[in-house]
UniProtKB/TrEMBL annotation, chain A:
InterPro entries linked: CN_hydtase_beta-like_N, CN_hydtase_beta_C, Elect_transpt_acc-like_dom_sf
A Pfam family matched in the record: NHase_beta_N
Regions crossing the membrane: none
Domain of life: Bacteria
Protein name: Nitrile hydratase
Signal peptide: none
Domain Nitrile hydratase beta subunit-like N-terminal: 1-92
SUPFAM superfamilies: Electron transport accessory proteins (SSF50090)
Automatic annotation (TrEMBL), chain B:
Annotated Nitrile hydratase alpha/Thiocyanate hydrolase gamma domain residues: 9-193
Protein name from the UniProt record: Nitrile hydratase
Single GO molecular function: nitrile hydratase activity
InterPro entries on file: CN_Hdrase_a/SCN_Hdrase_g_sf, CN_Hdrtase_a/SCN_Hdrlase_g, Nitrile_hydratase_asu
Key words of the record: Metal-binding
Keyword DNA damage: no
């Protein structure tokens, strides 16, 4: 079954925001999420395929509601919880 | 799109995660800063532009680039980039054919050659539509191609990244390689701009 990330050819997403073109990160936390993911892959806590799979396994409604780096953060948390590095709810204090 | 969390919420959670991982000895804050600096300084569309200018001025290099992009850019000390090694395929625009690159599944992209990817490249709108109606999408970028021009859309994968080799503009025979490189904007390397 196709996963929600497989959007090629789907209709209904509207025009492209071609003006959103230059900033790699829109907030500091996005840059930290990017760096954390690089470090966790480099440190072999998980690999790139696991990371990609964690994003692609998101519930469709959650995937579509999330921004690009919110998806990354979701995937990082999912994998760290699965591997017992952090516990569920540990970030919500 | 901002999703269910406010920026302050997610910002706090990210900081909390970073602290936990540092306390547990899994990542080091200084290493994260280095990773970011290296990413932002090593990944630039100037790299891709340098490859294009070399291909325009060195026919043998151009042949090698189109046959095996990975090896050819390695001659210039470059790679597609990313956290795992990837193959680079360079696709050439001609008077009859225009190429455009997408990653329909997510955001695969030769980051070292093109710099950090623009947000629109990662958007559902671009990913979904460019494979269905490339001509309409290109018009949103201000690119109008002759009806007779064939458009080929390349869908990136986790193993293969693509870069477009644009056509050399006419009237540039007097320019040297660095001057030619300055003519090449990032979107020309994706295929959403023409020179």
């Amino acid at each position: 079954m196709a996963r929600i990330n497989d959007v090629g050819g789907l209709q209904g997403f509207g025009p492209i925001d071609t003006a959103d073109d230059t900033e790699p990160f829109h907030a500091d936390w996005e840059a930290r999420v990017f760096a954390l993911n690089s470090a966790l892959i480099a440190g072999k806590v998980y690999n790139l395929d696991e990371f990609r799979d964690a994003i692609e396994s998101m519930a469709p409604a959650d995937y579509l509601a999330a921004s690009y780096y919110e998806r990354w953060f979701f995937a990082i948390r999912t994998l760290l919880e699965r591997k017992g590095v952090i516990e569920a709810g540990e970030l919500d204090v | 799109m901002t999703g269910g969390h406010t920026d302050a919420d997610i910002s706090r959670r990210v900081r909390r995660l970073e602290t936990l991982l540092e306390d547990r000895g899994i990542v080091a804050g200084a290493a994260l800063d280095e990773t970011l600096d290296a990413f932002l300084s090593g990944a630039s569309p100037a790299n891709g532009a340098r490859v294009v200018a070399r291909a325009w001025t060195d026919a043998d290099f151009r042949t090698r680039l189109l046959a095996d992009g990975t090896s050819a850019v390695a001659e210039l000390g470059l790679s597609a980039g990313g956290v795992q090694p990837q193959r680079l395929r360079v696709v050439e625009n001609t008077p009859d054919t225009h190429n455009v690159v997408v990653c329909t599944l997510c955001s695969c992209y030769p980051v070292r050659l093109l710099g950090p990817s623009p947000s629109w490249y990662k958007s559902e709108a671009y990913r979904s539509r460019v494979v269905r109606e490339p001509r309409a999408v290109l018009e949103e970028f201000g690119v109008r191609l002759p009806d007779a021009t064939r458009i080929t859309v390349w869908d990136s994968t986790s193993e293969t990244r693509y870069m477009v080799l644009p056509m050399r503009p006419s009237g540039t025979s007097h320019l040297d390689e660095p001057a030619l490189a300055r003519l090449v904007p990032r979107n020309a390397l994706i295929g959403t701009a023409v020179l």
